């Protein structure tokens, strides 16, 4: 069955600021997020891109998360680009990966105003035709994955900011009842799947979330199969709504589950350490709000790595919105999620941290620090791969060799020992042109 290290900023270059990257190896010993969540009766998930589920991306997706949401693979425009001609390739791939890693799948999304095929959006349809098209779409897709999807975002983003219905293809053609119908059809196709309505800017108590609340209440009263509400949570740094937990609770009190379905926290680039610390606090408070409400069942991040995030493409100049950097190193936000789920950072281990201490038009000076806590080293070996043709010209306090893009640096005769609680630093000069992305360092 069925993918920030951008070059140094001008500001950093002018100020000589140090940018640091901690090696992913530093987090190997920490309890995976999915296990921390499970211990609290929650599921922590991520949106994924099917084609990237190999290598480090696949390793992290499989090890850290208990559910996967296809970022785009299950949208109508992806699965039926030409009427009657289906492409389930990426959706199947994600479902198979999830099954192989004992993960849930959150199906996303059946009824939306975006990412629909052009044959659908450009067509002229009577209400009856539109209704039939929608029913067929839902029956076909939900039916195909019957028994394999834990929850479906059946209806996505039905509301305007003021709480009125968004004038979409569906609303304009079928009236507000399209929502109840879609839920009913989805339930018929897979009675076991939990059915959600999902929207953004509904995290706090406001006009939009109150409209959603009122809708869910009326659907429940009418006996329509509605199991949950998805709060997307595409947030801006430092702007977690104050009423988040209260809002989650009011939905839960209606007798439905709640999920944080698309969590990310964007900021202006380049990110500095204070912003990354704020981001950690933001992730932590969102996860804590969910953890505090029994019926808040799932917290899904919308891409786990900054290399696989929608933010830079949609908000130019913004990014760094996810818990891992572009080199798959966990950011402070990762530890914010972990801490909110009761995790404590592993204290024993050694980590290598790469930094650029100064940079000029053709060259730069870098350093790597190897630090240990709770353990010690008697020799060390670090390696990394340059992504933009950088070339080391000189090193000190280490023996460095470079072959192509691959760099290996081992201890000098006098500094192989890294004591518990201590560190060793070596330096180098290198050339660069075009860009100088920071590599991920492996400590061997
Ligand atoms: O992450 C998705 C991105 O790759 C697409 O280009 C974009 C198109 O609108 O959709 C993104 O996902 C959206 C999700 O399906 C619904 N909520 C908002 C998400 C971010 O745009």
Short description:
Helices cover 31% and strands 26% of the residues.
Characteristic key phrases:
single chain, 444 residues, alpha/beta, Immunoglobulin-like, eight-stranded parallel β-barrel, five-stranded antiparallel beta sheet, 14 helices, 31% helix, disordered N terminus
Word description of this protein:
- This protein is of the alpha/beta class.
- It has 14 helices and 19 strands.
- An 8-stranded parallel beta barrel has the order 2-3-4-5-6-7-9-10, surrounded by 6 helices. Strands 1-12-13-18-15 form a 5-stranded antiparallel beta sheet, with no helix packed on it.
- It is elongated.
- The structure holds ligand 9MR.
- Ligand 9MR is lined by residues 71-72, 114-115, 156, 200, 232, 262, 310.
- The site of ligand 9MR has 9 residues, from loops.
Class derived from helix and strand content: alpha/beta
Count of distinct strands: 19
CATH topology name of the largest domain: TIM Barrel
Question: What molecules are bound to this protein?
Answer: ligand 9MR
Biggest β-sheet: count, sense, barrel?
8 strands, parallel, barrel
Counting structural domains, the number is 2
CATH architecture of the largest domain: Alpha-Beta Barrel
Strand percent estimate? 25-35%
Helix content: 25-40%
How much is the radius of gyration in Å?
Answer: 24 Å
């Amino acid at each position: 069955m069925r993918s920030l290290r951008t070059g140094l900023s001008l500001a950093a270059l002018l100020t000589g600021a140090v940018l640091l990257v901690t090696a992913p190896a530093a987090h190997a010993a920490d309890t995976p997020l999915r296990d921390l969540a499970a211990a609290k009766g929650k599921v922590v998930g991520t949106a994924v891109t099917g084609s990237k589920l190999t290598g480090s991306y696949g390793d992290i997706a499989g090890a850290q998360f208990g559910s996967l949401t296809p970022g785009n693979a299950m949208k109508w425009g992806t699965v039926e680009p030409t009427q009657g001609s289906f492409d389930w390739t990426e959706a199947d791939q994600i479902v198979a990966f999830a099954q192989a890693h004992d993960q849930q799948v959150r199906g996303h999304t059946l009824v939306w105003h975006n990412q629909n095929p052009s044959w659908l959006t450009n067509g002229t349809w009577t209400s009856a035709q539109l209704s039939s098209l929608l029913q067929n779409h839902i029956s076909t897709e939900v039916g195909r994955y019957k028994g394999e999807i834990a929850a479906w975002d059946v209806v996505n983003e039905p509301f305007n900011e003021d709480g009125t219905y968004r004038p979409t293809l569906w609303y304009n053609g079928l009236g507000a009842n399209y929502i109840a119908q879609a839920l009913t059809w989805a339930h018929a196709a897979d009675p076991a799947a939990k059915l959600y309505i999902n929207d953004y800017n509904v995290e706090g108590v406001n006009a939009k979330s109150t409209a959603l609340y009122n809708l869910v209440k009326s659907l429940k009263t009418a006996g329509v199969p509605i199991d949950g509400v998805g709060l997307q949570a595409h947030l801006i740094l430092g702007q977690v709504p104050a009423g988040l937990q209260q809002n989650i609770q009011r939905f839960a009190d209606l007798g439905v589950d709640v999920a944080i379905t698309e969590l990310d926290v964007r900021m202006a680039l380049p990110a500095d350490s204070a912003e990354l610390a704020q981001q950690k606090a933001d992730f932590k408070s969102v996860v804590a709000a969910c953890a505090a409400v029994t019926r808040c069942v799932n917290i899904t991040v919308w891409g786990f790595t900054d290399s696989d995030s929608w933010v830079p493409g949609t908000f130019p100049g913004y990014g760094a919105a996810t818990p891992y950097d572009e080199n798959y190193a966990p950011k402070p936000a990762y530890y914010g999620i972990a801490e909110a789920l009761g995790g404590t950072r592993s204290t024993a281990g050694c980590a290598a941290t790469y930094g650029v201490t100064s940079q000029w038009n053709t060259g730069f000076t870098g350093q790597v620090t190897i630090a240990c806590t709770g353990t010690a080293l008697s020799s060390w070996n670090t390696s990394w791969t340059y992504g933009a043709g950088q070339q080391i010209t000189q090193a000190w306090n280490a023996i460095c060799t470079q072959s192509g893009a691959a760099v290996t640096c081992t201890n000098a005769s006098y500094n192989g020992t890294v004591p518990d609680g201590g560190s060793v630093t070596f330096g180098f000069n290198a050339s660069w042109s075009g860009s100088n992305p920071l590599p991920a360092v492996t400590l061997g």
